[in-house]
Write a structure and sequence with these properties.
ten-stranded antiparallel β-sheet, alpha+beta, 23 helices, two-stranded antiparallel ribbon, 16 strands, ANK repeat, Ankyrin repeat domain-containing protein
């Protein structure tokens, strides 16, 4: 099961228990038992509903009643920004988005990721790959900290592991497998502090010994701050890092170095590096295929293209090392996908290539599964699915284009477990797209697979509405 799928189930479970609409990721850990961690406004996990009402009065609103896998009834009591999940007349989860509430370790809504990790470092916090949530495991009890896009706490939830397992069909062992221990070292935290424009965190981490030349995936923290387009905090962070000893490069040479590397011009590359160009600069191409924001370093690009002389020049000038083997495998995979070379792709997959990988760069990147499905490459798609590729979302993505994929592709994706009722940002399903285009073969396949004809998009329209709108009369008869 994939990380995002596992975490989505976990968040959905907690949402049901507390009646909250926040959608985020999460994570785990083990540590010391301290009961005071789980008290909110005098209520703690395990308290009765009578005590809850005695302390806080009757709830302003109640959540929906849901049935657990063991046939118990769960609901939620909501008091403004505070929600309590109720099961068997006991409090089994507590959730708050109240900025005034603080945990016993001083963390509240608005606390930065860096401050959160430092507060709980002794309890071995765990997190998902995107740092969208962190969690602490204390025996059967859990504290979740869901983070916003600026890496600050936006929601705190307390619950039991046993309650989660009653409400879902996966175990916490599966969650643990898909998360990792948070890196609590100052240098690792420095990257997040820079990305979140937290001047105070940057200062405190440098005082604790963080390396001002820290890199992440080949990009220095100085360069990360510099690429944030001169915001006030970013400018201050750049200056703080420089004063702390971060390497200073001639930033005006970045685009020239990128061009020299892209053109495999070793002479120009050498001269630009001597003139102070940053060997960790990001690549950008004139055709717009690669932008600096795509995060592809010049060394990564040189290895990918097989420009060994340039790669050696960059390394000699201090470029942060990259995983040559992984990059070369990516290059081979891109070649196999572009040329529809089944044999080469099979060798790569058997050699450890992730079937859920992508081909292309940045905004032009497409998952292997989407790339194959959109080009009616049945054999390649079958190979990827046999090697564990996740098909979820592909049907919805390709159905929006009348010229992509035949019905066999859709059938293969359905058989592999894709969700025919998945929607895009406008609430459109594959069935709605098929109805628009009058693609009756696809309409039939989707209906047989359980597509919901009554689903509505954000404008309140169904597949039948679209068939009527586009005068697709045969489609209308199929949908009625």
């Amino acid at each position: 099961m994939h990380t995002r799928v596992v975490i989505a189930i976990l968040v959905f479970t907690l949402t049901i228990l507390t009646g909250c609409t926040t959608v985020r990721d999460n994570s785990l850990s083990s540590g010391k038992q301290r009961e005071d961690k789980f008290i909110v406004h005098g209520i703690m996990l395990g308290d009765s509903t009578d005590k809850l009402i005695e302390k806080l009065g009757y709830p302003l609103t109640k959540g929906q009643v849901v049935e657990t896998q063991s046939n118990e009834m769960a609901t939620s009591y909501k008091y403004g920004e505070l929600s309590f999940g109720i099961l068997d007349d006991k409090v089994v989860s507590i959730e708050t988005t109240d900025k005034e509430y603080k945990t016993s370790d001083g963390v509240n809504v608005g606390t930065s990721y860096v401050q959160l990790i430092r507060a709980y470092s002794e309890l071995n916090p765990r997190e998902d790959e995107e740092k969208e949530a962190v969690y602490i495991d204390e025996n059967d009890k859990l504290i979740f900290f869901f983070l916003d896009r600026s890496f600050r706490v936006e929601q705190i939830t307390y619950t039991y592991k046993s309650v989660f397992e009653k409400m879902s069909n996966i175990t916490f062992d599966e969650i643990i497998e898909k998360t990792h221990a948070s890196d609590t070292t100052p240098s690792a935290l420095l990257t997040v502090a820079v990305l979140s424009d937290s001047v105070d965190d940057v200062r405190s981490l440098l005082d604790l010994g963080a390396d001002p030349n820290t890199t992440k995936e080949g990009v220095s923290v100085l360069l990360l701050a510099d690429y944030k387009n001169g915001t006030g905090a970013a400018k201050e962070i750049v200056e703080i890092l420089r004063q702390a000893g971060a390497k200073v490069y001639n930033e005006s040479l970045h685009s020239e170095l990128s061009e020299a590397v892209v053109n495999n011009n070793s002479y120009e590359t050498r001269e630009l590096l001597r003139a102070g160009a940053n060997p960790d600069a990001m690549v950008s191409t004139n055709d717009g295929e690669i932008e600096p924001s795509d995060g592809i370093s010049v060394l990564w690009y040189a290895v990918y293209k097989g420009y060994s002389e340039i790669a050696n020049l960059l390394l000699e000038s201090g470029a942060s090392p990259v995983d040559d083997k992984q990059i070369e495998m990516q290059a081979s995979a891109d070649n196999a996908m572009q040329n529809m070379d089944i044999d080469q792709m099979e060798r790569l997959l058997n050699g450890g290539l992730d079937a859920n990988g992508s081909t292309g760069f940045g905004q032009w990147s497409e998952s292997f599964v989407y790339f194959s499905a959109a080009r009616n490459n049945h054999e390649m798609l079958q190979l990827l699915l046999e090697h564990g590729a996740n098909p979820v979302g592909v049907i919805q993505a390709i159905a929006g284009r009348s010229d992509l994929a035949d019905t066999k592709i859709y059938t293969m994706l359905i058989d592999a477990g894709d969700d025919v009722n998945m929607t895009d940002s406008q609430g459109l399903t594959a069935l709605m797209h098929a109805a628009m285009y009058g693609n009756n073969e696809l309409v039939t396949v989707l209906l047989e697979a359980g597509a919901d004809v009554n689903m509505k998009d954000t404008n309140g329209l169904t597949a039948l509405d679209y068939a009527n709108q586009y005068n697709n009369y045969e489609t209308i008869s199929l949908l009625q």
